[in-house]
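tokens incoming
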């Protein structure tokens, strides 16, 4: 009698560990646990491997944070490097970075920490090329591009900080802004006359619309340098 044969099953193959896979897992971990939660032990557990296998691809946490930031920024740039006009391209790049910081709040800190490294330079380069295309005089290139960059990082970072505060307090964005708006309204009317006057605007504003309105103000100023009329 012939021995019963076991049904053959397709061999299960796990996806090989690669630098790209490690970076992707690191981004997921950073999004859920923040920078403090990114440890090689937690990453190894997520990847179902040992820390030693990860060290084969990256030397440490700093390199991993840099690679994760680079990947997020590269994705943001890929969607916004072109536009019908230089002004449109600036708005597209700026909004792409703003949305990236909103989705991955930790990259704002990383970009501020390493101003000489490639993720930040990638953004600066794209903005600078559009500044050139707008006809800004060479002597004002650095100032114009830096102003745009600092606005994008500053507002994006503040928006992310507000979101984190809202999460820590277990409130919605509307509730968080409502509380801050109320606090502004109750400030001393002589010492904080202006802040009190815009308290309602803080409560009701849309983050992305307000961000783009600020970009448009900067572009209007750049247009004043070049003599080109900015579109509303």
């Amino acid at each position: 009698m012939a021995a019963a044969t076991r049904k053959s099953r397709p061999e299960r193959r796990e996806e090989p560990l690669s630098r790209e896979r490690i970076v992707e897992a690191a981004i997921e971990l950073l999004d859920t646990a923040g920078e403090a939660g990114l440890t090689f032990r937690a990453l190894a557990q997520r990847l179902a491997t040992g820390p030693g296998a990860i060290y084969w691809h990256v030397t440490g946490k700093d390199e991993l944070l840099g690679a994760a930031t680079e990947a997020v920024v590269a994705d943001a740039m890929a969607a916004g490097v072109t536009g019908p006009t230089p002004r449109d391209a600036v708005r597209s790049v700026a909004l792409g970075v703003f949305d990236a910081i909103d989705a991955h709040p930790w990259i704002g800190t990383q970009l501020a920490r390493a101003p000489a490294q490639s993720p930040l330079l990638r953004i600066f380069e794209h903005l600078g090329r559009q500044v050139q295309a707008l006809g800004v005089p060479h002597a004002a290139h650095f100032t114009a591009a830096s102003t745009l960059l600092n606005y994008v990082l500053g507002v994006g970072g503040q928006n992310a900080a507000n979101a984190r505060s809202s999460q820590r307090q277990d409130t919605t964005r509307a509730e968080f802004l409502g509380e801050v708006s109320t606090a502004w309204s109750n400030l001393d009317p002589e010492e904080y006359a202006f802040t009190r006057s815009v308290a309602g605007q803080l409560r009701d504003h849309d983050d992305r619309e307000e961000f783009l309105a600020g970009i448009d103000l900067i572009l209007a100023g750049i247009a004043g340098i070049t003599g080109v009329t900015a579109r509303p």
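note: DSSP finds twelve helices and no strands in the chain.
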